[in-house]
Amino acid sequence: MSVRILIVDDEDIVIRSCKRIIAAATPASGGFDGAACKVDAAQSGAEALRLIEQQPYDLVVLDIMMPKMDGLEVLQQVKERHPDIDVIMVTGLSQITTAVKAMKLGAFDYLPKPFDPEELQRVVQRALEHRRLLSESDPAESASNARYHFENIVGAGPAMQAVFRLIAKCAPTNSTVLVTGESGTGKEMIARAVHFNSLRKDHPFVTVDCNTLSENLLESELFGHVKGAFTGAVATKRGMFEIANEGTLFLDEFGNIPLTTQAKLLRVIQQREFRPVGATAVQTTNVRLVAATNKDLKAMVAEGHFREDLYYRVNVFPIHAPPLRERREDIPALAFHFLKRVCGELGKPMAEISDGAMSVLTHYDWPGNVRELENVMQRAVILASDNVIRQSNLSSIVEMAAPAGVDVPRTSEDLKLAKKIAREKSVEDIERQFILETLKRNGSNVTRSAEETGMQRTNFQALMKKYGIRVRDTGADGAESDEPGDEVAPT
Ligand SMILES: Nc1ncnc2c1ncn2[C@@H]1O[C@H](COP(=O)(O)OP(=O)(O)OP(=O)(O)O)[C@@H](O)[C@H]1O
Ligand SMILES: [Mg+2]
Questions:
Q1: Which amino acid residue places its CA nearest to atom 29 of ligand 1?
Q2: What's the structural domain count of the chain?
Q3: Rg of the chain's alpha carbons, rounded to an integer?
Q4: CATH number at residue 302
Q5: Which of 182, 183, 188, 251 maximizes ligand 1 atoms within 8 Å of its Cβ, making it the mutation to test the pocket?
Q6: CB-ligand 1 contact for 305 (6 Å cutoff)
Q7: 370 lines ligand 1 (CB under 6 A)
């Protein structure tokens, strides 16, 4: 099947070089076969939109800077009418703002100009791979679980693309999968993706958290028990190995399984049969195991805390979920992903993220990984008073991100952006201090504070709102609000 690619750029020379680079790709060099791609070109946004209406394209490589209709506008129209076409934006500005805007509008990725031939080949390859995984995982129904669960995982960057490839590779097999990674990196999400992209997807996906249960409870949870097997076993209980039959059993926090249970588990894996607690007969089971852990199982084996034989039985197909700080390129898309969800849940219009705030997000180290980012975005949406997320709404991480945030710029564009961010941050700091100090001097009385500064009361209040500052005020001001934020206690 040939791949159709459309190149949109107002400069003929760029079009020709892109065509050449794509045609030159081989499975060995670019990862895809350039000769099998049919490449068209358009020199304006209008022409591109016309071509896209006439024939189906898989991929559009789109320049942002074009006269008349700029790339962002074209992107928006393409995504509105054909959401399944992947669009790669070429930005001449190497600016995070424009690129982020493009990602928000649904671009697959962006490529700063000037780029090397290999860079273009790589991003095209990733887009094609992404499409292949999506289409292969659900040959028949487009709205199946499989598709849904894959598309919910954000990760256009190379690290997560590698994970996607592994998922796609192992999902259709019956192989046991071991997902490793720090907490909050998306291990459970990967486990689900394995199941929902497998032939077992219409059978149950059952989770057992090996962490929270005592040894006895864990065994009865896994294998079930018969009535009277132990005190408290008032009725027969089916184990998860039975419930998950034909489906996938997800053993979360696998590194915390006690040694005696490990021995029993090994037997199930080897013989595909188990005995419920207190039962005499064995039951057979056909489950696929996916295990996840944030522990270093190999080290545990060396220390004697984990059975080596079980380790090798489970570590058949390892998938490592990389920490977020090692895939910072995914942060903007993840931030918008959570922003969209939180705003939707709260019934708020989609919020914006200021350049300064985005810089903090991309420079912070995220010890709690994606889960922490999710929580920070949730808090920020609640704190943001004018629908723009600013540095001041990220107070929990802003200090820690700051040292990394002052990267020395390398190009004049980076310098411009860094100056803009620094200015924005110092203006915010000063405004915030100004409001806080004035309120303090005036016993949290908003009217008096406004008078002292020579500002209109409404303007003063607007600034308070911008920074989420409220006063615990019982006076005549009525400035009390329920919004969370910094509080100025009356003196
Ligand atoms: N790539 C991603 N795209 C979108 N959401 C993600 C992604 N990775 C993780 N999440 C979200 O982050 C949260 C944490 O993910 P998950 O529970 O899978 O992590 P985990 O590694 O199992 O964490 P823990 O070790 O704490 O159990 C979830 O709400 C999940 O939906
Ligand atoms: Mg988990």
A1: 371
A2: 4
A3: 28
A4: 3.40.50.300
A5: 188
A6: no
A7: yes
Q: Residue 11 maps to which CATH number?
A: 3.40.50.2300
Whether 163 and 15 map to the same domain: the answer is no
97 lines ligand 1 (CB under 6 A): no
Distance of CA 319 from the midpoint of ligand 2 (Å): 14
Q: Are residues 455 and 390 in the same domain?
A: no
For residue range 229-286, what is the model confidence (pLDDT) as tens digits? 888 888 888 999 999 999 999 999 999 999 999 999 999 988 889 999 999 999 999 9
Nearest ligand to the C-alpha of residue 189?
1
* DSSP bridge partners of 59: 5, 86
In the reported structure, the alpha carbon of residue 208 is separated from the centroid of ligand 1 by a whole-number distance in angstroms of: 17
Q: Where are the alpha helices (DSSP H) in 8-157?
A: 12-24, 45-54, 71-81, 96-104, 117-137, 145-151
Convert the pLDDT of each residue in 62-120 to its tens digit.
998 888 888 999 999 998 888 889 999 998 755 567 777 787 788 888 888 888 898 89
CA-based nearest residue to 56, from 84, 76, 77: 84
The reply to whether 210 and 310 lie within a common domain is yes
Element (H, E) at 163: helix 158-170
Supply the pTM of this predicted model.
0.61
> Are 229 and 157 in a shared domain?
yes
Q: Which ligand is nearest to the CA of 375?
A: 1
Taking the centre of ligand 1 as the mean of its atom positions, its distance from the CA of residue 271, in whole angstroms, is 33
In DSSP terms, 89 is beta-bridged to 62, 110
